[in-house]
Amino acid sequence: MRTAPLPAQLLYGRLLATTVQHLLGDGPPPQARLRLVDGRTEPLPLERWLGPIDAADAVVLDRATPPVLDIGCGPGRHSAALRAAGKPALGVDLSPVAVRLARGRGAAAIARSVFADVPGMGRWRTALLLDGNIGIGGDPAGLLHRVATLLAPHGTALVELGAPGSGTYRTRVRLEAPGAVSEWFGWARVSVDGIGRIAAEAGLAVGETVAVEGRRFASLAVAGPDRSSRRIVPLRTRDPVGP
Protein backbone atom coordinates (compact mmCIF):
# COMPACT_ATOMS: atom_id res chain seq x y z
CA MET A 1 0.00 0.00 0.00
CA ARG A 2 1.44 3.35 -1.05
CA THR A 3 2.05 5.80 1.79
CA ALA A 4 0.34 9.18 1.41
CA PRO A 5 2.89 12.01 1.18
CA LEU A 6 3.28 14.13 4.30
CA PRO A 7 3.77 17.89 4.47
CA ALA A 8 7.51 18.47 4.24
CA GLN A 9 7.77 20.37 7.53
CA LEU A 10 5.95 17.52 9.32
CA LEU A 11 8.26 14.78 8.04
CA TYR A 12 11.29 17.01 8.62
CA GLY A 13 10.24 17.49 12.24
CA ARG A 14 9.80 13.74 12.72
CA LEU A 15 13.24 13.09 11.26
CA LEU A 16 14.82 15.65 13.55
CA ALA A 17 13.09 14.12 16.59
CA THR A 18 14.22 10.62 15.60
CA THR A 19 17.79 11.85 15.16
CA VAL A 20 17.75 13.45 18.61
CA GLN A 21 16.64 10.12 20.11
CA HIS A 22 19.44 8.35 18.25
CA LEU A 23 22.02 10.84 19.54
CA LEU A 24 20.72 10.17 23.05
CA GLY A 25 21.38 6.46 22.54
CA ASP A 26 17.83 5.38 21.79
CA GLY A 27 17.45 3.71 18.41
CA PRO A 28 19.19 3.83 15.03
CA PRO A 29 19.66 6.98 13.01
CA PRO A 30 16.97 7.73 10.44
CA GLN A 31 17.91 6.83 6.86
CA ALA A 32 16.74 10.15 5.46
CA ARG A 33 17.48 11.61 2.07
CA LEU A 34 16.49 14.37 -0.31
CA ARG A 35 15.25 13.27 -3.74
CA LEU A 36 15.38 15.67 -6.67
CA VAL A 37 12.70 15.44 -9.32
CA ASP A 38 15.29 14.13 -11.80
CA GLY A 39 15.84 11.07 -9.60
CA ARG A 40 19.10 12.05 -7.89
CA THR A 41 19.25 11.59 -4.14
CA GLU A 42 21.36 13.13 -1.40
CA PRO A 43 21.61 12.20 2.30
CA LEU A 44 20.15 14.66 4.78
CA PRO A 45 22.91 15.68 7.23
CA LEU A 46 20.60 15.70 10.24
CA GLU A 47 23.32 14.93 12.78
CA ARG A 48 25.43 17.83 11.52
CA TRP A 49 22.46 20.19 11.78
CA LEU A 50 21.88 19.03 15.36
CA GLY A 51 25.56 19.28 16.28
CA PRO A 52 27.69 22.32 17.12
CA ILE A 53 28.95 24.76 14.51
CA ASP A 54 32.07 23.76 12.61
CA ALA A 55 35.05 25.84 11.46
CA ALA A 56 33.32 26.98 8.27
CA ASP A 57 30.22 28.07 10.20
CA ALA A 58 32.42 29.98 12.65
CA VAL A 59 34.12 31.94 9.86
CA VAL A 60 30.75 33.04 8.48
CA LEU A 61 29.18 33.85 11.85
CA ASP A 62 32.20 35.96 12.76
CA ARG A 63 31.23 38.20 9.81
CA ALA A 64 27.63 38.59 11.03
CA THR A 65 26.76 42.01 12.43
CA PRO A 66 23.85 41.90 14.90
CA PRO A 67 20.96 41.81 14.99
CA VAL A 68 20.94 38.70 12.81
CA LEU A 69 18.00 36.96 11.13
CA ASP A 70 18.67 33.23 10.62
CA ILE A 71 16.37 32.17 7.77
CA GLY A 72 15.53 28.47 7.75
CA CYS A 73 17.26 28.12 11.12
CA GLY A 74 16.40 24.44 11.59
CA PRO A 75 17.39 23.19 15.05
CA GLY A 76 19.29 26.40 15.65
CA ARG A 77 23.01 25.70 15.69
CA HIS A 78 23.82 29.05 14.07
CA SER A 79 21.38 31.12 16.13
CA ALA A 80 22.53 29.44 19.35
CA ALA A 81 26.19 30.06 18.53
CA LEU A 82 25.47 33.71 17.78
CA ARG A 83 23.68 34.14 21.09
CA ALA A 84 26.57 32.46 22.92
CA ALA A 85 28.88 34.99 21.26
CA GLY A 86 26.73 37.87 22.48
CA LYS A 87 25.15 38.61 19.10
CA PRO A 88 21.34 38.96 19.20
CA ALA A 89 19.73 36.70 16.60
CA LEU A 90 16.31 35.36 15.67
CA GLY A 91 15.73 32.10 13.82
CA VAL A 92 12.71 31.50 11.59
CA ASP A 93 11.68 28.07 10.36
CA LEU A 94 8.49 26.39 9.15
CA SER A 95 8.99 23.35 11.41
CA PRO A 96 7.64 23.68 14.97
CA VAL A 97 9.89 20.78 16.02
CA ALA A 98 12.97 22.55 14.67
CA VAL A 99 11.95 25.73 16.49
CA ARG A 100 11.51 23.86 19.78
CA LEU A 101 14.94 22.28 19.37
CA ALA A 102 16.47 25.67 18.58
CA ARG A 103 14.91 27.20 21.69
CA GLY A 104 16.17 24.25 23.72
CA ARG A 105 19.70 25.22 22.66
CA GLY A 106 19.19 28.76 23.90
CA ALA A 107 18.31 30.36 20.57
CA ALA A 108 15.41 32.71 19.96
CA ALA A 109 13.27 31.24 17.18
CA ILE A 110 9.76 31.39 15.76
CA ALA A 111 7.78 29.02 13.53
CA ARG A 112 7.11 31.17 10.50
CA SER A 113 7.73 31.52 6.79
CA VAL A 114 10.26 34.15 5.75
CA PHE A 115 7.56 35.42 3.37
CA ALA A 116 5.11 36.00 6.25
CA ASP A 117 5.16 38.80 8.82
CA VAL A 118 8.71 38.70 10.20
CA PRO A 119 9.51 40.87 13.25
CA GLY A 120 11.96 43.71 12.76
CA MET A 121 11.34 44.18 9.05
CA GLY A 122 13.86 46.64 7.64
CA ARG A 123 16.03 46.57 10.78
CA TRP A 124 18.12 43.38 10.51
CA ARG A 125 21.82 44.08 9.98
CA THR A 126 22.56 40.55 8.76
CA ALA A 127 20.46 37.75 7.28
CA LEU A 128 21.75 34.18 7.05
CA LEU A 129 20.91 31.77 4.22
CA LEU A 130 23.14 28.82 5.10
CA ASP A 131 22.98 25.04 4.57
CA GLY A 132 21.46 25.45 1.13
CA ASN A 133 18.65 27.74 2.25
CA ILE A 134 19.16 29.96 -0.80
CA GLY A 135 16.91 27.29 -2.33
CA ILE A 136 13.87 28.08 -0.18
CA GLY A 137 10.77 28.45 -2.32
CA GLY A 138 12.50 27.49 -5.57
CA ASP A 139 13.00 31.13 -6.61
CA PRO A 140 16.34 32.47 -5.38
CA ALA A 141 15.89 35.92 -6.92
CA GLY A 142 12.48 36.25 -5.28
CA LEU A 143 13.87 35.03 -1.96
CA LEU A 144 16.74 37.52 -2.08
CA HIS A 145 14.34 40.31 -2.97
CA ARG A 146 12.36 39.42 0.16
CA VAL A 147 15.55 39.33 2.21
CA ALA A 148 16.47 42.79 0.94
CA THR A 149 13.20 44.15 2.36
CA LEU A 150 14.01 42.64 5.75
CA LEU A 151 17.52 44.07 5.96
CA ALA A 152 18.42 47.48 7.30
CA PRO A 153 20.05 50.02 4.96
CA HIS A 154 23.59 48.79 4.31
CA GLY A 155 22.67 45.38 5.73
CA THR A 156 24.21 42.16 4.46
CA ALA A 157 22.99 38.70 3.53
CA LEU A 158 25.48 35.90 4.13
CA VAL A 159 24.66 33.11 1.69
CA GLU A 160 26.04 29.60 1.27
CA LEU A 161 26.51 28.58 -2.37
CA GLY A 162 27.48 25.59 -4.46
CA ALA A 163 30.91 24.99 -5.94
CA PRO A 164 31.88 26.64 -9.23
CA GLY A 165 30.30 24.78 -12.12
CA SER A 166 27.84 22.89 -9.90
CA GLY A 167 24.88 24.57 -11.57
CA THR A 168 22.29 27.23 -10.86
CA TYR A 169 18.77 25.95 -11.36
CA ARG A 170 15.26 25.52 -10.03
CA THR A 171 13.94 22.09 -9.21
CA ARG A 172 11.45 20.18 -7.10
CA VAL A 173 12.46 17.93 -4.23
CA ARG A 174 10.97 15.76 -1.53
CA LEU A 175 12.15 14.20 1.73
CA GLU A 176 12.29 10.44 1.98
CA ALA A 177 12.73 7.99 4.84
CA PRO A 178 11.81 4.32 5.26
CA GLY A 179 8.01 4.17 5.14
CA ALA A 180 7.51 7.89 4.59
CA VAL A 181 7.86 10.55 1.91
CA SER A 182 6.99 14.22 1.86
CA GLU A 183 5.09 16.14 -0.73
CA TRP A 184 7.15 17.62 -3.55
CA PHE A 185 8.15 21.23 -2.99
CA GLY A 186 10.05 23.90 -4.89
CA TRP A 187 13.78 24.24 -4.29
CA ALA A 188 16.77 25.77 -6.03
CA ARG A 189 20.53 25.49 -6.22
CA VAL A 190 22.86 28.44 -6.78
CA SER A 191 26.57 28.08 -7.48
CA VAL A 192 29.17 30.66 -6.55
CA ASP A 193 29.55 31.52 -10.24
CA GLY A 194 25.79 31.89 -10.60
CA ILE A 195 25.03 34.33 -7.79
CA GLY A 196 25.94 37.59 -9.57
CA ARG A 197 22.92 37.89 -11.88
CA ILE A 198 20.49 36.59 -9.27
CA ALA A 199 21.71 39.07 -6.65
CA ALA A 200 21.48 41.90 -9.18
CA GLU A 201 17.86 40.98 -9.92
CA ALA A 202 17.14 41.42 -6.21
CA GLY A 203 19.01 44.75 -6.05
CA LEU A 204 21.93 43.37 -4.07
CA ALA A 205 25.65 43.73 -4.66
CA VAL A 206 27.99 40.75 -4.38
CA GLY A 207 30.85 41.54 -2.04
CA GLU A 208 33.28 39.13 -0.42
CA THR A 209 33.30 35.44 -1.31
CA VAL A 210 35.11 32.91 0.85
CA ALA A 211 35.80 29.17 0.65
CA VAL A 212 36.28 27.30 3.92
CA GLU A 213 36.66 23.53 4.29
CA GLY A 214 35.04 22.84 0.94
CA ARG A 215 32.07 25.17 1.53
CA ARG A 216 31.56 28.50 -0.25
CA PHE A 217 29.91 31.67 0.98
CA ALA A 218 29.18 35.15 -0.33
CA SER A 219 28.12 38.41 1.24
CA LEU A 220 25.38 40.32 -0.56
CA ALA A 221 25.07 43.96 0.39
CA VAL A 222 22.16 46.36 0.52
CA ALA A 223 23.51 49.79 -0.38
CA GLY A 224 20.66 51.67 1.29
CA PRO A 225 17.69 53.73 0.09
CA ASP A 226 19.65 55.19 -2.85
CA ARG A 227 19.56 52.18 -5.17
CA SER A 228 21.61 54.04 -7.75
CA SER A 229 24.60 53.81 -5.41
CA ARG A 230 24.66 50.02 -5.47
CA ARG A 231 27.65 48.55 -7.23
CA ILE A 232 26.86 45.18 -8.73
CA VAL A 233 29.89 42.92 -9.06
CA PRO A 234 29.18 40.74 -12.10
CA LEU A 235 29.93 37.03 -11.81
CA ARG A 236 29.49 34.84 -14.88
CA THR A 237 26.83 32.15 -14.59
CA ARG A 238 27.17 28.93 -16.51
CA ASP A 239 23.67 27.65 -15.84
CA PRO A 240 20.78 30.14 -15.93
CA VAL A 241 17.98 29.67 -13.45
CA GLY A 242 14.98 28.17 -15.17
CA PRO A 243 11.91 26.13 -14.39
Topology record:
Layout: H1 8-23, E1 33-36, E2 41-43, H2 46-50, H3 55-62, E3 68-71, H4 77-84, E4 89-93, H5 96-104, E5 109-111, E6 124-129, H6 140-150, E7 151-161, E8 169-177, E9 180-181, E10 185-189, H7 195-201, E11 205-212, E12 215-221
Helix pairs in contact: 6-7
Main β-sheet, spatial strand arrangement: 5-4-3-6-7-12-11
Q: Write down the domain tally.
A: 1
Mean pLDDT: 91
Succession of helices and strands? HEEHHEHEHEEHEEEEHEE
Using the CA coordinates, give the radius of gyration.
Answer: 17 Å
Shape: globular
Summed up, what is this model?
This protein has 243 residues and is an alpha/beta fold. Helix content is 26%, strand content 28%.
Overall description:
It is a single chain. The protein has helices at residues 8-23, 46-50, 55-62, 77-84, 96-104, 140-150, 195-201, and strands at residues 33-36, 41-43, 68-71, 89-93, 109-111, 124-129, 151-161, 169-177, 180-181, 185-189, 205-212, 215-221. With 243 residues, it is an alpha/beta fold. The strands form 2 sheets. It has a 7-stranded mixed β-sheet with strand order 5-4-3-6-7-12-11, sandwiched between helices. Strands 1, 2, 8, 9 and 10 form a 5-stranded antiparallel β-sheet that branches. The longest helix is centred in the first third of the chain and has 16 residues, at 8-23. The protein has 7 helices and 12 strands. The protein has one domain: Rossmann fold, CATH 3.40.50.150. The radius of gyration is 17 Å and the shape is globular.
What are the main properties of this structure?
five-stranded antiparallel β-sheet; Rossmann fold; 243 residues; 7 helices; single chain; seven-stranded mixed β-sheet; alpha/beta; 12 strands; 26% helix
